Amino acid sequence: MNAETTIPGDSHMPIVTVEAKLIANSDSVEAVKSELLKMIEPTRLEDGCIAYRLHQDNDDPSVFVFYETWQDITCLVQHTQSSHYQAYVAAVGNLISDKTVHKMTEIV
Question: Most buried among 21, 62, 64, 81, by the most CB within 10 A?
């Protein structure tokens, strides 16, 4: 795959990979984990969601990382506008100390 990798039938919009890292406050790890787990099923059912995987760091349980693959940037934007995504943002806003999101296009 490369930057021009696309889903069959869509020759102009490349696949988007997302790495989203969240760090929960030390007293909120289980609450954040619960909210993140609520995201899995509805997100995987969204149009354009190719993969949506949640990980928790083995050495630091306050660190969570999503690895996501989307058909294109439009599908990712629609995901961030979904009701379950908006509910998650509202629920964890004061429970996390940091969030970093990388939106990437594969080049090799």
Answer: 64
